[in-house]
Amino acid sequence: MGTVTALATLLLLTACSGNDEPAATESSSSPTPTVLPDLTATQVVSALKTDGYDCTTDVAYAVCRKGITSIGVLTGTHPRPPVLSVQASGQVDVAWGEISNSLPRILELAHVNQPEIAGWFDQQKGKPIAQQAFGDWLVDISAEVDTEEPGVHLTLTDKLCKTNCQAE
């Protein structure tokens, strides 16, 4: 009998409100995206290691690998890495899929506050090269087909960097 009473009360409240539409219980506005603080190159490499990447360092870059994907992080004393380079080797379709699957997480780990880069990357599939600016980042894509090392390269360059912004 409790269910019938609750239903009757709901019907009565709806009828008495003079409104045929049920009251909205959720806000229609989109939530504000969280802006992550900039990370130094060392912090980005640490985040990648924590996520299961195997990282080594050469002269200018830390290189982190997982599967066929590698991420180059230009090291230095910048407030954030001036260059993040994501590469996947092998047949272009496979390499593109690998980057596409891992890119949202890589952007999150590196605190690149431009999640739309991942969607844009997916839209470029099949193009040999593409370039687009997203906020303070310039993003370049190249697909290598007829080379000794086929694969896909995605490079994010910090447009705010003024000195020591490229590897020597």
Description:
- With 168 residues, this protein is an alpha+beta fold.
- 31% of the residues lie in helices and 27% in strands.
- It contains four helices and seven strands, in the order ααββββααβββ.
- The protein has a seven-stranded antiparallel beta sheet.
- A hairpin with a 2-residue loop joins strand 2 and strand 3.
- The model is unreliable at 1-27 (pLDDT under 50).
Short summary:
It is built from four helices and seven strands; from the N terminus they run H-H-E-E-E-E-H-H-E-E-E. By secondary structure, the protein is α+β, with helices and mostly antiparallel strands.
Set down the secondary structure blueprint.
Layout: H1 2-17, H2 41-50, E1 54-57, E2 61-66, E3 69-74, E4 83-89, H3 92-109, H4 116-123, E5 129-134, E6 137-144, E7 151-158
Antiparallel strand pairs: 1-2, 2-3, 3-4, 4-7, 5-6, 6-7
Helix pairs in contact: 3-4
**Can you write the helix and strand succession as a string?**
HHEEEEHHEEE
Low-confidence stretches: 1-27
Mean pLDDT: 84
Helical residue percent band: 25-40%
Strand content: 25-35%
For the termini, the CA-CA separation is 79 Å
How are the strands ordered across the major sheet?
1-2-3-4-7-6-5
Helix- and strand-based class? alpha+beta
Largest sheet composition:
7 strands, antiparallel
| Overall 3D shape | globular
- Count the DSSP helices: 4
